[in-house]
Amino acid sequence: MSNKRPSAGHIPRPIGAPWNRNSAFDPETLGALNGAIARGVEYANQLFMQATKDLNLPEEQKHEAMVLLAQGVSDGVMEFAETQKK
After folding, report:
1. What's the whole-model pTM score?
2. Distances from the Cα of 10 to the Cα of 6, 7, 14, 27, 63, angstroms
3. Which domain holds residue 43?
4. Is residue 29 assigned to a domain?
């Protein structure tokens, strides 16, 4: 039994294939990207909560909206990061 989590839509690397380090970010950049995503999600959450504070949204709807906001922030940061690669 494997403890690996399922792929999030990524194409799996064939067994035995070399890892392409040219497409990987260095640890410092990964840390900066993770921090930017965390701050972006936190800010998006604050804006969402302020915008919806007078609405009686069920917790399920709030959760669904936050998942979409978090994914949007993550995608946006990563798209920007890809443009910065040399």
Report:
1. 0.62
2. 10, 6, 12, 21, 24
3. 25-84
4. yes
